[in-house]
Amino acid sequence: xxxxxxxxxxxxxxxxxxxxxxxxxxxxxxxxxxxxxxxxxxxxxxxxxxxxxxxxxxxxxxxxxxxxxxxxxxxxxxxxxxxxxxxxxxxxxxxxxxxxxxxxxxxxxxxxxxxxxxxxxxxxxxxxxxxxxxxxxxxxxxxxxxxxxxxxxxxxxxxxxxxxxxxxxxxxxxxxxxxxxxxxxxxxxxxxxxxxxxxxxxxxxxxxxxxxxxxxxxxxxxxxxxxxxxxxxxxxxxxxxxxxxxxxxxxxxxxxxxxxxxxxxxxxxxxxxxxxxxxxxxxx
Length: 284
Description:
- This protein is 33% helix and 24% strand.
- It is an alpha+beta fold.
- Strands 1, 2, 3, 4, 5, 6, 7 and 8 form an 8-stranded mixed sheet that branches.
- The longest helix is centred in the N-terminal third of the chain and has 16 residues, at 7-22.
- The radius of gyration is 23 Å and the shape is elongated.
- The model has no long low-confidence stretch (mean pLDDT 84).
């Protein structure tokens, strides 16, 4: 005798199995989209997230309109976790992108509040960023064009000022300091006003042509309104760095530092300096 199980019973049973084995459905997974895009799953009554975990991800099905399973797998390779949970727990931190139109590292580097809160970049953009008018940048994965953040791990990306109360000082010297930790590239995103950028570029030019032995620039975000997005990027190439947490001082020695102007729609290099020691001192 053949027993027919209704889709409603399948739905209840599979939901219970999913809860026991995998827990809650991540907010990044869009169950309504998944059922609409996969009519066979909808007809079966199987819990949509359970289906994605057991079969959908392997078949290349997408868990949301803004998450491309195959595109993500091309970056992550085969992993123990499914793409959604991998991106939430590991991938975002490593700089993997969920779809060709979203650059994870760019988003966290542009918006210090997102990085500071530890929010998942795509989830923040979906629930808050788009509505707030925050632009996103396209992924550079698979692009033949070099990109300033390509291959840079998240712990080598810094943002200053971190808030409107933290003053900081940038110091550039010609002598070489001892720094223990290597980095192929370290990126410092700065939210500076136009006058501050102009003064920094003038100082870099004077330093480069030997008119200065030491350049110091003090930034106090409480004295004037500062941009909410980064306006300048200092990319330190082939460097060694060290941090004194007690004093909030970061020191790094690099082969070259490039300054990118992020104010135009297309970022461009506005200054390059060969070698030197750079110190960042945070002051509360």
